[in-house]
Amino acid sequence: MHGTYLLWIIKTIILLVHKSPSKTNIVLDFLMFCFGVFLFRNIVFVLFFYFVRTIFNYLLQIVHECINDETKKKVLCSYVTENTWMDTIPGFQHVTFRILSHVSFFMGFFALYRFYSNLTRMNIFDAPITWLFVPQNKIIYLLVTAIVSILIGIMFQYINYCTVTGGTNFFDKEEGVLYITRYGLPIPGISRSNVRRILIKEISCLILVTHRIWGDVLYIETRKHGTLPMTPTKDGRRYRLTKHGLELSKFLNIPLEISYEEY
């Protein structure tokens, strides 16, 4: 039993050393590991510290990639033929949901490990495992915490990858109809897609609201339904739609109004 744990610990150390970007970090990681084992007398606690540090570096990388991605204005993907025009609106995937899902999974599997260790009274290298902030003899509490945390992590991943608020804008000049399709969460018994049918002759103009920081938003002004957004407005994504609006205005033969917002 102890040989298996020792092999697992050695493999974990090799993986951490292999992931280090430079030799300086390899030496620093090794010294920190030895100091942690000497100070806390518990290899599991030191490995837990390294795991938390790895997760923290991963979260910093996600935030850095998110900032780089958000500083670039995107353009919509359009498919155009002689009589049809279709814009694809990407689904909403926020970095917050990814971070919360990772944290929930970590809490769930860590609570599950504590449940197993508390159930079997497992000791590693004759060092008893003592857990802080956990009621004694509350095995059911640990099991429920693990299950709930894992389910919450699955829920966040489910929301993040279901392309919520995504859809299409389909203009058909031959039939004179605009179909606005938006997707929600796939709930059993409830239609996921929300389709709105608008006659093109009811569209009086296109409105492009452009902002120096927050990007562009394209609206349509209709006589019957009022002003309707055609692109995402409040999900943090930034678009560059000036050229797109001009081409769509020319395709539909509908005037385009451009509104500039400084703040």
From TrEMBL:
TM annotation in the entry: 26-51, 95-116, 139-159
Keywords: Chloroplast, Membrane, Plastid, Transmembrane, Transmembrane helix
Domain of life of the source: Eukaryota
Protein's UniProt name: Photosystem I assembly protein Ycf4
Species this protein is from: Lathyrus pseudocicera
Lineage: Eukaryota, Viridiplantae, Streptophyta, Embryophyta, Tracheophyta
Underlying gene: ycf4
